[in-house]
Sequence to fold (312 residues):
Amino acid sequence: MEVANNVTEFIFLGLSQDPGVQLILFALFLFFYIVIMVGNLLILLTVFSDPRLHTPMYFFLSNLSFVDIAYSSATAPKMIADFVSDKKTISYWGCITQMFTFHFFGCAEIFVLTVMAFDRYAAICHPLRYTTIMSANVCTLLASLSWLGALGHSFVQTLLTFQLPFCHAQVIDHYFCDVHPVLKLACADTTLVNMLVVANSGLISLGCFLILLTSYTVILFSLRKRSAESRRKALSTCGSHLTVVTFFFVPCIFIYLRPSTTFPLDKAVSVFYTTITPMLNPLIYTLRNGDVKNAMRRLWSHKSSLKEKQKR
Fold:
């Protein structure tokens, strides 16, 4: 059956209706987005240019940086532009595209973070077998499965939402097209779709979060028999991962592991996993990682020496 649809565009309410507050938010989120782009591009450039970082851990870190660039770009440019726009509209197909890309890269981030935890578990708990466990083929397979899983999740999520009819309601009480705010506008019973959304998004977030916590718990127990230096280095690496995981998964679980009810707090909570986490990732992984900092110094000194040679 063809879905009845009288809506050609949607209108966002955004984070605020106050013009003064919107200007402040425009400057703030533009700064956040620039930090996201520069920080993650710098990590990608550093990892690809330094052969010493061609290891499983940094292979997945580069995947994470790419995901963060694409994930934040699914919502941030439109949100920033809307802060200085009189009418915050998005076309029907633009809304579908935004929801698909947002959930595709968001789910990819969930899977990549989970794979990174497995990588740390293998490195710390099975150091002698690490190169065998995390071979190049295994890393490629895990990354491919993460992207394919995210593609399947996003396709199902978007299809479930937009197979419903939309009659006249156009105003989305959010700053981007997400499942729960859009479902509120559907002129049909959404009970079954709501349950499927919880199963699709909520349980993926919760399940991966529990896997992450389990892997890090096992790692912490295994560190009791290690030297103080080994414990310090492992805790530093795992600590940075857990910081990212907490900022990303807890808000996701709060939003998606519940029926289609929206709260005023939802928009503020969404900022954490759409903007704050992609911005913190490069800061956490560079400031708390000696290998990446040293690689960046080598990259900078190499560029400086090239400039000096060109001047001569």
Observations:
- The chain has a mean pLDDT of 85.
- The two ends are 73 Å apart (CA to CA).
- The first strand starts at residue 9 and ends at 12.
